[in-house]
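Why do we care about 3D structure at all? Because function follows from shape, and shape follows, mostly, from sequence. That is the central idea of this module. The next example makes it concrete: a single protein chain, its amino acid sequence, and then its structure expressed as tokens.
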Amino acid sequence: MHISCSHRLKLLLIVPFLLISAFQPARAADITLSWNPPTENADGTPLNDLAGYRIYYGTMSGNYTTVIDVMNTTTYTIKNLPEGFTYYFAVTAYDINGNESGFSNEVSKNIPSIPLYRLTVFKNGDGSGIVSSSPSGISCGADCDEYLPAGTVVTLSYSTSLDSLFSGWSGDCAGTLSSCTIVMDSDKTIGAMFSKKSFSITATAGLNGMISPSGTAAVSYGGSITYTIMPDSGYEISDVVVDGLSVGAVNAYTFSGVTSDHTIEAYFSPLQPYPDIRDDTTVYEDAEDGTTLGWEVYDNDPDWAYVSNIYDTDRQSRVIELNGYGLYNGYRLRNPDLTPWNNSTQHYLEWYFNYDEMFMVFVDVETSEGQRYLSYLPMNWEPSYSGSYIFLGLGDNLLNNGWHRVIRDLEADLKTVEPLNRILKVNGFLIYGSGRIDDIKLHSTMPLP
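And the structure:
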């Protein structure tokens, strides 16, 4: 197409319309322009080689400081125009040879300045939580202060920490609903109160004794409280029941990491005269019968481990020899019919061993807090625990291919880690590692050295 002075592109009316976002921190507006495409040249001949359009605009009528080539489209949005100005717009068309028409009719739009108002959020109370806004901006937390355009509709909502409750809004919001909506027609200040969760622990005592503190106590989320149980003269503690379950005749109990309500009840009975206690001993293994009754390989992977009864020249007696792949195999001694010992009266354990490689002994005990394994290592080891396993050291220099005697007060060993726990029954002797064992016994009193 060739354009001369008498052959110009003809544009029809530009139809503008305005879109302004309700909340834009950049304080700017978007304006969308649209126009009808021309269909003929200025001389009335058909227009067949139209290529695209250019938008011209500025802040003075007829003086356009910005031009945008929008290609072959008849609708375009100019974004982020600063507020506080009147903008003037015109459009031209151009053909495939780069020839450009004159300006279309001019349209204008005033973008007034919108005032900003300050939104301030504060938190109070002994709890913790976060207040956030929609549209985004407030996250208090870290950001508790924002300037927003007049007319902005803001919804504030909260989230609480695990240990806290929401207690209510204050200032320009009120009530305890999960959210609060405001319109920014002035500066706004809004408070959010968070309170620590609190739980009730109720303590009661039966006749002939007391529990302290008594009654109902309030404990904050994750907190702790210790109760002391004291019998009257001539009485003893017969049982302490926590949340309906017996914890034994303990003289103190601590609730720690509290996350719910609890109850504790103490009961008392008259003192009974102590019986005449003798050093009764139960021998579970001395190997002199020449058998391995009561023994089993309970961890048989690899599967070639076995238990034998042999004569040991150093001890001048028969002993039990455990043969396997070191700490990979485990052996257990129970009653001859392989049932648990269920020994509720003898808590002093004695055994002899001869090992030149690492081993671990586990004593299976039933306690007032559930099953425990008292675990003994042939080394110096500070008492510790992991789940139901309590680890203790036997000392060093024990893996020297010689016989050693071990005597353990099982109750005392348990209380090194769980001072309020107590043994109800001793059920069995377990050991990992290959070596020799003899004279496994339980005593009712500490045996002589």
